[in-house]
Design brief:
The structure is a homodimer. The first copy, chain A, is built from four helices and nine strands; from the N terminus they run ββββαβββαααββ. Chain A is α+β, with helices and mostly antiparallel strands. In chain A, β1 and β2 form a beta hairpin. Chains A and B meet through β1 and β5 of A and β1 and β5 of B. The structure holds a DNA duplex.
DNA sequence: ACAAAAGTGTTAAGAATACACCCATGT
DNA sequence: ACATGGGTGTATTCTTAACACTTTTGT
């Protein structure tokens, strides 16, 4: 109604994957001010003709070379008000949480540097992006406990040890091997494939598969 | 950057309280098109000089006479893209979830009709507001199970039966009285005040109080 | 033969569920 | 005296938590 101006709408993405059993987040180096050369979450303005989801998809490719369909899951996380330190005026930022595996960012026309950083060793980021990543990590912790979302961090075929490592990386705690297996197998989310992972100087490990590669809510919470 | 136009930013509120042990939601009747005379969630445009939270606060008073400090809790729920049926073009709506008790909406300059409706008997609402309320109710169900948020629905002094009724209204299921009491008292969130609720033609009921009237996360989930 | 990760079971404590009767008051 | 909601305990099942040794492979 009338002539009210509303804030600018931005989108930002917190994209997680595991690298060497560490939860890691995709960052891109800013090409301009404000915060030129600082690392930041991939994001940008949401143009009027795109939904925030669509804008996120496009911007992610443009800035990091990562396509949303490489992700196991992407969902809205939270909307933050007024980007701190943004000299270009009031804004809201709709933040998405994405989870994937084996993602390799590429240099693009607009951004020459993008890479994954362990959440344990983040540099000081642009805007309030450190805070946003902490929030996303908390949400992910909760989510692996009451859904099967861990699938998004794992390859199609995986060993129980890989599964446990993924949980441990997200939850930042060590779990008991026997109890972990008993409990997780009891959820009925995965099945053994009959194949084995050979390779190390040790006994081969059964390879498992998720029954469904879509988000499911668990009746009994996990951990 | 540059000359990109972004969508309009709206805020909307889903304000719950109990009325006759039914979970009810605050609606206001639209004074203009689109959807003139339809019931709708209180909401409006977020002007550039206000955060979405601040805009929510102001708009809630303007449209329904309800002040945010009458609510036990208010928090961001979700951001919906492009208000369906909004002829005024693309928009995002940042939706807040509020919970209170003993709230009486008042007619205001801009809106003559505001009232609570049981979520079980909602009329057909403007935009996608029915869908948003369903989503908010789901979230509330989850939230009463892993936080103490139920306090926001109850008076300061309350009986265990009132507490159980509140859970039952939110969860839409019947709980066992003895198990409910054992479990809830075991959480250590409330304490008896020594006072009693006299009145009915029956044994007086102990009155309890929450230890803290602020959101707490439970170690063991509830129900 | 040794190193390295895979795999496997039992016991004890705590939590969840199912279930029925007496108590204190108002009328 | 009776109607109404308040208040209480036990037995069973299921879940969680703690804990250590054997197996299979590569070198």
């Amino acid at each position: 109604m009338d002539e009210v101006k509303t804030p600018e709408v931005y989108v930002d993405g917190v994209i997680f994957q595991l690298i060497d059993n560490e939860l890691s987040v995709l960052l891109t180096q800013r090409e301009r001010n404000p915060f030129k050369d600082r690392w930041a979450l991939p994001g940008g303005l949401d143009p009027i003709e795109e939904t925030t989801y669509k804008a996120m998809t496009r911007i992610l490719v443009e800035k990091t070379g990562v396509r949303v369909n490489q992700l196991g899951i992407i969902e809205q996380l939270y909307t933050f008000d007024t980007v701190i330190g943004n000299p270009e005026g009031p804004a809201v930022s709709v933040v998405y949480l994405g989870i994937g595996k084996n993602i390799t960012p590429k240099a693009t026309q607009s951004h020459r540097n993008s890479q994954f950083f362990s959440v344990k060793q983040l540099p000081e980021l642009a805007f309030d992006h450190n805070k946003i990543i902490t929030y996303a990590h908390q949400r992910l912790k909760a989510k692996v406990s009451y859904t099967n979302v861990i699938f998004a961090l794992l390859p199609q075929l995986f060993t129980l040890s890989q599964l446990q490592d993924a949980y441990q990386a997200v939850l930042e705690e060590v779990l008991d091997k026997r109890n972990f297996r008993k409990k997780f197998l009891g959820l009925g989310l995965i099945h053994p494939t009959g194949e084995f992972h050979m390779g190390g100087a040790h006994r081969p490990a059964r390879l498992y598969k998720f029954n469904k590669l879509a988000l499911q809510y668990l009746s009994r919470g996990f951990d």
